UniProtKB/TrEMBL annotation:
Sequence similarity: Belongs to the ATPase A chain family.
Main location: membrane
Membrane spanning stretches: 37-58, 92-111, 123-141, 161-178, 187-209
Gene: atpB
Record's function text: Key component of the proton channel; it plays a direct role in the translocation of protons across the membrane.
Location in the cell: Cell membrane; Membrane
Stated name of the protein: ATP synthase subunit a
Phylogenetic placement of the source organism: Bacteria, Bacillati, Actinomycetota, Actinomycetes, Micrococcales
Length: 261
């Protein structure tokens, strides 16, 4: 393809530098803000308006907007109660709902024109959310089982004492290290890869249509089709990642509350 077009060498694919744009506000200060930070603030503002407008005048017979919000919230509520039961579910429902809708709205900014990048596509936000989930399940375990939670987590009852030299390091890493790390990386990598693929498809479409020679322009039809199809797929990924993050947080809390501790 490069040999068939004199301009092919001019095409440049997406770069990891896109996730580290130049500062826009307060450059050189501790509160420096770049494009991604502003996108996060926008997502939070839209979420707050969405929640306020959708719940300020609730009706017994809901309109379409209220019905949509109730359905979305009910998904979180049912999963929370299924994992934690009604009593503990009510305690942690606000946290899990905040995680679900916060992740979802920040994920979806990657598909909004003129933004085109998810607020969760840089590690700070996924890591903060993972730390919140980590603190929540540690808090739940210590609150429910103050004297036995850490001991039973690291030294599971019923295991022969001589196996603790193997079991305890595994439990330490899997429970207290890998959980927040995997929560962070799962969300981050999905958003990063999604952004890079969308940029690749649409920048290639622009290149083929406007810069490529003769018949090479036809390749733009294919890249445009892939770009549109993957945009719809990315909506599903954004929703799924928000759901998985919320669900795993609920599962970790449930494990911390289990009577085995």
């Amino acid at each position: 393809m490069a040999a068939g077009s004199s301009k092919a060498a001019e095409f440049h694919g997406p770069s990891i530098n896109e996730f580290f744009p130049d500062p826009i506000l307060f450059a050189g200060t501790p509160i420096e803000m770049d494009r991604i930070v502003l996108i996060r603030l926008f997502a939070v503002a839209v979420l707050l308006v969405f929640a306020f407008v959708g719940t300020r005048a609730l009706k017994l017979v809901p309109n379409r907007g209220q019905a949509f919000i109730e359905y979305a919230f009910d998904v979180v509520r049912r999963n929370t109660f299924d994992n934690l039961g009604e009593k503990d579910g009510k305690r942690f429902l606000p946290l899990l709902a905040t995680i679900f809708f916060g992740v979802l709205f920040m994920n979806l900014t990657g598909l909004i024109p003129f933004m085109n990048i998810a607020g969760t596509s840089r590690i700070a936000m996924p890591m903060i959310l993972a730390i919140v989930a980590y603190v929540a399940f540690i808090y739940a375990g210590l609150r429910k089982h103050p004297g036995t939670f850490l001991r039973n987590a690291l030294f599971p009852p019923g295991v022969p004492w001589y196996l603790y030299i193997i079991v305890t390091p595994i439990e330490l890493v899997s429970t207290f290290v890998l959980r927040p790390v995997t929560l962070t990386l799962r969300l981050l990598m999905n958003m990063v890869v999604g952004h890079l693929l969308l940029v690749l498809f649409f920048s290639a479409t622009w290149f083929f249509f406007f810069d490529a020679d003769s018949l090479f322009k036809l390749f733009g039809i294919g890249t445009l089709a892939f770009g549109i199809a993957f945009s719809f797929f990315e909506i599903l990924v954004a929703l799924l990642q928000a759901y998985v993050f919320m669900l795993l947080t609920a599962v970790y809390i449930q494990l911390a509350l289990a009577d085995e501790h």
